[in-house]
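#data-curation
PF: Archiving a pair of folding outputs for the training set. Convention for this channel: one message per protein, sequence first, structure tokens after, nothing in between. First:
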Amino acid sequence: MSVSHFYVSKRLREVNRQVKFALFSYGAHVTPQRQTLLSSRSILITQGDGEHHYNHVMEKGNPLHIQLKYLPVLAHQFKINFHRSLDAFKQHLSHCSSHHHSEYSTSSSGNADMDSPNSLGEAKKKDSLIVQLDALCKADPDDQEALHALEILVQEIKPSDDPEGLLLGASYLKLATVCASSCNENIFKGLSYAQKATEVYKNLGPSLKLATCFYISALICTRMGETKKAVAYLEESDSVMKRIKVTSCDEYCVALKHDVQSVMGEACDLFCNEMRLEIQSLFGTAKMQLGMHAEAIIHIHKTVKLKQKLLQAGSPDLGAFYLDTAETLRLLNDHKTATNLCSKALKIILKFYGSSSREEAKVRSLLSKIYCDLGKYEESLSETDSARKIWMQLGEVDEVISLNVNAERLLVRLERWTEAVARLDEVIEATRKGDNFHTIALVLAARVFLLVRNSDMAHSYCKRALEALEYQGPCSQTAHTLLLLSIQYEDRKEFDEAATLCKKAKEIFDQCLGQEAAVTAAELEGKLGCILMHAGKPEEAIPYLESSFSRLNCVPNQDLLYIHFYLGLAYPHIQKLKESVQHLEAAKGALSTSTNVSTSMEVAVHSNLATAYSALDKLDEAVECQKVVVGMLQKNDVKDYSLKEAEARLHYYIRELTLSKDRVGKA
């Protein structure tokens, strides 16, 4: 072989390598479906040209579902939505892909002309391998046969076929991508494939493919519930993106058409922004799961800026994105940004869909919730009524019912009692016994009448609510509403009614599944015991208090303070003085670890403990406890406690202690 022939072949081999690298650019840029922070809609997967709807994330047992279950109170409403929107790039992808294939074909032919027949056979085999890999990489993510075939084909790649490891890296990346989007055990394989792809691309410097490898690893870790690991991978991915040389999409395609070499080590700006959007969105999800809400908000703000770059201003997709993002930010208490995004979404929606559309109703419903959170009840009610009118025009009865129930809270805040009951009566008439909203509306109506001191009407609605419960299964929302009504009766010192409702709520939670429901049922047992104590029924209260204590004693729970206290009050009625002291001492100890404990509760614990010590002739301890009571009453006015009486009791304990010591001295 001549020297000139050697250099020509070397140049063709280099072009061959570059085209193989570019051939899988499509695979590098199409990332798996991320978890976004944006919506409570069903999950949407878009891969290639196909769309696949499924709801596996919210199934019981799914690691991500389990992780969501333990989010803070506001985040528990949050659901996961996987989606992709690469439609804007399809022309560029198609152009690039077709160019890659034609360029690679030319290069292969050139090699074959210059090499031996054996080399020609090897080149054809290599071409066939690449074509098969490319086809399998573009297969449907749910096509298990294609996935299995790709796994087998990867094993056939020889070092001589792929000296730089580009085919292998691209194949591993595709396998990881498919596994990350799967709803079965393949997700666990995905992390291994992503790590293998990472090892290949690490040697080639910062690239979109390397960033994608880290992103997929983060996505898989998130779905497996390993959120801290996910954050670490996302930081790696973000770091890579900051080091990539970015070229405008038009310049990228023009350069690629003329010379593959000119775009090696670069990345299209549109692809980069799409990848950054994926990273920031998953960052936000992970930070939410870790309870790092302030940081999550920062990442969500970044997704907004990136989405604005990727979508055309005024497009309906951008309006939908604004709405979904506003819903998430509301849950994170970023009401200012949420309101701003709702306004932008509404402007787009009115221009694109016109007035009285389903989309407008959704925005106004969310604005109503935001204004309610901010205490702007008039504005909230106005948005509720606007949304309600639209849903009525569209014939969406369920939405109208939901808004009527929500309107009750606003009307009560505004002390518009008659209107509140009227809205609830609409719900009652539009629903049947056994429907959750039917029962909830009856309970809320009873509560309104209690607030206006109309006991007869309150009892009437309450009776109807209890009858309606016989027609439906366990519902935690109904149970919470019953508990709310129970508290209203308790505040009015109607303890028998309060106990009946509390017991019914407890029975509902007893039927619900899950640890959270079990803990709530145990707490309600304690609450029921407390109500019975106020009703003057200590013997009836003790079994509920004891059961609650045994169920809650193994988990951190602030209700234990009150259970200890009321057991301490109840036990003397059945001659268990020592047990009474033990529980009151435990209540005293719990005061230091509990939050939001009222001064009256602190006074009650020390005062009753002093009495219990006195009954057992522990006068030293009685004196010390009573001194604490006097000290608190000197600084605070506490209902049902008199400083004068507390001081008199302290003097009595001191006198009894002195007499006791004198008797011991004389003996």
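PF: Second:
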Amino acid sequence: MDKINDGGPAFPATWANDSDLNAIAPNGQVCPPFSSIPLPGMSLRDYFAAKVMQGALADSNVTLEKAGDADILAKASYRIADAMLRARGEA
């Protein structure tokens, strides 16, 4: 199976512990005093798929009443996200 291009991180950030005690970062990692931990955030692929799904569900004609409808929408959202990532590579 080919590796899926996830586009890299969409919203990378750094979580800083400004305390003199150990702290738990949002990803569950222990962060020593006065240090920071990189947080990759979601992938660009996940972000694009979420935007596609959000747009589809904003249409009142789109319903998820039948069994499997959510799976169909999720798969279609990722197909479109993958197309968006391919298009970015060609720009």
